[in-house]
Amino acid sequence: MGIIDISLSIKEGMITYPGNPSVTIEQIKDPASTHSKVTLGSHTGTHIDAPLHVFEKGKGIGELSLPLFFGECRVLDMTHVSEVITRSDLEKNTIQAGERILVKTKNSQRGFEAFYEDYVYLDGDGADFLTQKGILLFGIDSLSIKKKGDPDRRPHTSLLKRDIPILEGITLANVQPGNYTLIALPLKFGTIDASPVRAVLFTN
Ligand SMILES: [Zn+2]
Prior knowledge:
- Helices cover 14% and strands 31% of the residues.
- It contains four helices and twelve strands, in the order ββββββαβαβαβαβββ.
- The strands form three sheets. It has a seven-stranded mixed barrel with strand order 4-10-9-7-5-11-12. The protein has a two-stranded antiparallel ribbon with strand order 2-3.
- It is globular, with a radius of gyration of 17 Å.
- The structure holds zinc ion (ZN).
- Zinc ion is lined by residues 43, 47, 49, 168, 194.
């Protein structure tokens, strides 16, 4: 069984979504030990959005059902998409209830050393479609599922209204589309809106 790390490295100077806090890491050394003060936003790097991100009374990251975050998943090839993943792009993949769906786009190929305004994202109809299908989790290789500044909030709200977690900031450059086992466990933060995760795929 092979393991593929699909997480971004957390380090000072890494890219964050515009307006989000930068990462700082301060090492504190004494003669016997080293410890560190780490500051980062809840949406740093590879992370999962909880309903509280967009709903004032939504569940926090620690209140979501743990089994959502591990189990079978399918990576869909969306590398042909130039700007936005739509309902019709998704419909071609016979998505079933109970699936965890990750999308591989050209964002992964371009990498995450800089923030690019023209990242590939999911549109509102696409999000509604996935919600209606009854998937368990949705993942995308961009720091946000939604187009920057778009007034259509459904990419977040449609999924999170049904407590479908959104895994953002995964890197799939070395991942072939297909079936895997996903593990992406958030830290046990309780009622905050998101958490960084270490996301890995196991080949079946
Ligand atoms: Zn987020």
